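for the writeup, i need someone to sanity check this before i put it in the appendix. the sequnce is what the collaborator sent (i think, or maybe the updated version? ugh). structure was predicted straight from it, no edits. if anything looks off just tell me and ill rerun, i have time this weekend
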Amino acid sequence: MCINCFSSLDAMAVAGSGAAALASGGWQRVVDRAQGLSRSERRRRTWEDDASFLSSLGHDPEVLLGPPPERVDA
């Protein structure tokens, strides 16, 4: 597809949605850090959220995601 097919509004919408996604992830890290969550706890929580979603679709999460991340007490 050529670049001439896109208007500047389309380009701004794509760039804006990308910026919003990055800002959302960054904000979630700030909130997690303020709550005292470590990286391993965030990974574990993300895996559990993804696993529950896959289970709701009827999939086996461990087959698709692999084993859950180990808890690291630091």
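The chain has three helices and no strands. Helices lie at 8-34, 39-56, 61-65.
thx in advance!!
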